[in-house]
Design brief:
The protein is mainly alpha-helical. Helices cover 51% and strands 10% of the residues.
Length: 461
């Protein structure tokens, strides 16, 4: 039996949470068009798959996979809208920007897996080529091309637009760029369309439709059914070559690597920060891509002991914020401490000894944990301790404070303990002819007097 919570809220299931977030996205009017295109995409994909089964064309199946990829891109666009609505939480302190990176990576990887499946089916068809029916082949090609182009050009997909520009060019884009340069040399007006490089999604849609048109003509003229398999292989290779650079780029973002195109700018900013007033060292710097277009980083800055922490923090943040949007700066002062000889509570006990204490030399303990009472520094066996100028009998010895009740080491013949003034006067230690104030000065026959004796035995004045 546990504690009964009467007013405890029931926890929602995963499906309930997903439905709640979907309602949050659907409340935005910008997402209505995406939802409409998604519904049309599902209908179009269903018709295309039925036509692929009726025509027995694997090339049309490979081209239909591009329509399925368009559905994934629409879902990614919805996720991008949802990320903009959500704010960072204590659990996800950096926000949810990496979710759209993960969506792009998953979409491109699934498209490549579909291309590998087409390659496997095409290899089996080379062994036994079936008959291809061209009744709906050309119709399905134009339906898929129209829908793909209309979707790509009507909806601004921020994640895929960024990845297509930031990722490296595919082999299809490079070959088309070479042809475009030659064509733009003849017709300069086409440079705004074909240069510097075309949109990879529009390019693969046009190239796939062109391959299907060639397939239709060759089958209608010569009944050459093997060209359908060859077109399917070509479309699969173009799909794989187009999606692979995007998968690599989004995968590097997920691995928290530093983008190559900002390394030079980051090095320049770090050098500028290291030259700021009060900054001694910049270390443990780490910068990574948080999402598409946003850079995060952390850095440790060591400053002088007399520097203003808030001022240095403001200058460092101002320099790095131009490139790093999410920045964490750890400021710590120099940990070097000057060894003060007369610091701490041990100093008064060394300089101001009362009359009841004496200092006698004792040898040092030869241990690595021995600590000198003056500097509080561990004594190293490799080097002797320092020699000081006050109350130090010799080298390599440390003073030990003993009470006056112990035996005096120098054999002066004095009794232990304090000698009262009455006993001093009763023992006849006073000198005749002197006052009471001077009679308190003791005289010892076996020790020279402070003032010395003359030849007659009388003390010197």
């Amino acid at each position: 039996m546990g504690t009964i919570h009467l007013f405890r809220k029931p926890q929602r299931s995963f499906l309930g949470k997903l439905l709640q977030e979907f309602r949050l996205v659907a409340a935005d009017r910008r997402s209505w068009k995406i939802l409409l295109f998604g519904a049309v995409n599902v209908l179009c994909t269903g018709f295309l798959l039925m036509w692929c089964s009726s025509t027995n064309s694997i090339a049309l199946t490979a081209y239909t996979y591009l329509t399925i990829f368009d559905l994934f891109s629409l879902i990614t666009c919805l996720i991008s809208y949802w990320v903009m609505m959500r704010k960072p939480s204590p659990v996800y302190s950096f926000g949810f920007e990496r979710l759209e990176v993960l969506a792009v990576f998953a979409s491109t990887v699934l498209a490549q897996l579909g291309a590998l499946f087409i390659l496997k089916e095409s290899a089996e068809r080379f062994l036994e080529q079936p008959e291809i029916h061209t009744g709906r082949l050309l119709v399905g090609t134009f339906v898929a091309l129209s829908f793909n182009l209309f979707t790509m050009l009507s909806i601004r997909n921020k994640p895929f637009a960024y990845v297509s520009e930031a990722a490296s060019t595919s082999w299809l884009q490079e070959h088309v760029a070479d042809l475009s340069r030659s064509l733009c040399g003849i017709i300069p007006g086409l440079s705004s369309i074909f240069l510097p490089r075309m949109n990879p999604f529009v390019l693969i849609d046009l190239a796939g439709a062109f391959a299907l048109c060639i397939t239709y003509m060759l089958i209608e003229i010569n009944n050459y059914f093997a060209v359908d398999t060859a077109s399917a292989i070509a479309i699969a290779l173009m799909t794989f070559g187009t999606m692979y650079p995007m998968s690599v780029y989004s995968g590097k973002v997920l691995l928290q690597t530093t983008p190559p195109h900002v390394i030079g700018q980051l090095d320049k900013l770090i050098r500028e920060v290291s030259t700021l007033d009060g900054v001694l060292e910049v270390r443990n710097e780490h910068f990574w891509t948080l999402g598409f277009g946003s850079l995060a980083g952390s850095v440790h800055v060591r400053i002088r002991r007399d520097a203003n922490e808030q001022m240095v923090l403001a200058h460092v943040t101002n320099r790095l914020y131009t490139l790093v949007s999410t920045l964490t700066v750890q400021i710590f002062k120099d940990d070097w401490v000057r060894p003060a000889l007369m610091s701490g509570p041990a100093a008064p006990s060394v300089l101001h000894f009362s009359a009841d204490h004496h200092i006698i030399p004792m040898p040092l303990l030869k241990s690595t944990d021995a600590v000198t009472p003056v500097t509080s520094t561990p004594a190293k066996p490799s080097s002797p301790p320092p020699e000081f100028a006050f109350n130090t009998p010799g080298k390599n010895v440390s003073p030990v404070i003993l009470l006056n009740t112990q035996t005096r080491p120098y054999g002066l013949g004095l009794n232990r303990g304090h000698t009262p003034y009455s006993s001093v006067l009763s023992q006849g230690l006073t000198v005749p002819g002197f006052g009471a104030g001077q009679g308190l000065r003791p005289t010892f026959p076996h020790l020279p007097s402070r003032y010395g004796n003359n030849r007659t035995g009388q003390p010197r004045p």
